[in-house]
Amino acid sequence: MREFLKIVFGLAFPIALQNLINTAVTTADVVMLGKVGETALSSGSLAGQVHFVMGLMIFGMTSGASVLTAQYWGKKDLATIEKVFSMTISFAMMAGIVFFVAAEFFPEQIMHIFSSEEEVIKGGVAYLKIVAFCYPISAFTTAYLYLMRSIERVKIGTAVFAGSLVANVVLNAIFIFGLLGVPAMGVRGAALATLLSRCLEFLIVLYYLFLVNRQVRLRKYYLFHWDSLLLRDFLVLSIPVVLNETLWGAGMSANAAILGQLGSAAAAANSVVRVIRELVMVMSVGLSAATSVLVGKAIGEKRLDLAQIYARRMMGLSIVVTSCASITMFCFRTRITGALTLGEQAREYLLFMLVVLAVYSLCQSVSCPVIVGILRAGGDTRFGLILEGMALWVGSILLGWIGAFVLHLSVKGVFMLLMLDEFIKLPFALWRYRSKIWLKDVTREGDSLASNTGN
């Protein structure tokens, strides 16, 4: 147990801290735009869905790649890890470029998906036209830092996200409210602050990549020449995870779109709830990422009993820390609503949504480490795709859409339907965990890779 706690404090909590800091960047935008007003808050939050979906795609790619890198890390096969790193970065950069093109050249069409209010759409278009330029570099930075987690290198991620948070808060204050002689820019100011903060992240990562990291390099040759066997393994593991995360991200965006069509008050309240949910779940998500590394490494070392011990303990820890966060959020929900400049209706919606969130997060504290951590560590990625896709799209989103546009339920009723996905998938996730199907070594022997000439 002492060794386990040492690992938790050395790996799991630093990863959770990274997630907390990264979430705090979004929180700063919400809080500061919330001081401007509901329209600014809705515009910035809904436009931010583009980066949110891209981030989930990158997370999906790196999660699939991390199955390989963590298990090869257990084997201490650094040469293969470098190949997987370079391949993943290439895919991430391509995704970043696609999202840049979409946000820069089709911002109005994107915003019409999320809102029907012209002022909200106008603000969102202005935000996207600026922030789109950070998408390619953000894709590179995020992919690299996520992959570094899989080989137990977490300090660089903490440093990068901490620097980005400080920069974002300071620049938000300057550009949103017009400090130091700079004209107040509102939503455009938040976008400019985000762009500059992402540029800072990129510069720090480049410094670390070329001048500090001597163990696992990002080699230019492997960026364009992919090992065919590793590519096959990467695609088999990553495609289900990318689809899973994309469907989940699109589902969260669909939730925002459904509530956004019910008015700016509902959209503003939901914007705050999204951030609060991330804060409540930040430790669980961090523990899930650490679980994937620990369990994957143990499987690569052929220590299956240890992998099961790590899985069980990390899931229990996730439940404990999320329960504490959920109870704290519930107790301070009135102070949370009072800290924002919201109308009476939006405030009423938010108070109700936070109560629902307190229960929702307890279910997620179990399913998250199972699906994101344990199952993925052993390469069992297809099950997560099927379960989450069905629970979200055939379950909660379909019911929420029917409730909103067919039955014409209240905003509160629609929100409850949209939050059913975690309750649907919980029993199935637990069944899969107990089946132990996920205990699989997905690595290849060195000879098979050495004999492969690549693409």
Question: What can you see in these coordinates?
Answer:
The protein is mainly α and 455 residues long. It has one domain (15-442). The chain is 84% helix and 0% strand. It has 19 helices and no strands. Helix 12 (264-300) runs parallel beside helix 15. The radius of gyration is 21 Å and the shape is globular. The model has no long low-confidence stretch (mean pLDDT 85).
Mean pLDDT: 85
Structural class: mainly alpha
Portion in strands: under 5%
Low-pLDDT stretches are none
* Main pleated sheet: none
Quickly count the helices.
19
Number of strands: 0
The percentage helix is over 70%
Overall radius of gyration: 21 Å
Distance between the termini: 45 Å
Query: Given the C-alpha coordinates, what overall shape results?
Result: globular
Number of domains: 1
- Secondary-structure element order, N to C: HHHHHHHHHHHHHHHHHHH
Which characteristics define this entry?
455 residues, mainly alpha, single chain
Topology:
Blueprint: H1 2-36, H2 38-47, H3 49-75, H4 78-105, H5 107-114, H6 118-131, H7 135-150, H8 155-177, H9 187-211, H10 220-224, H11 228-260, H12 264-300, H13 304-331, H14 333-338, H15 344-377, H16 381-405, H17 411-418, H18 421-435, H19 446-450
Helix pairs in contact: 1-2, 1-8, 1-12, 2-6, 2-12, 3-4, 3-7, 3-11, 3-12, 4-7, 5-6, 6-9, 7-9, 8-9, 11-12, 11-16, 12-13, 12-15, 13-15, 15-17, 15-18, 16-17, 16-18
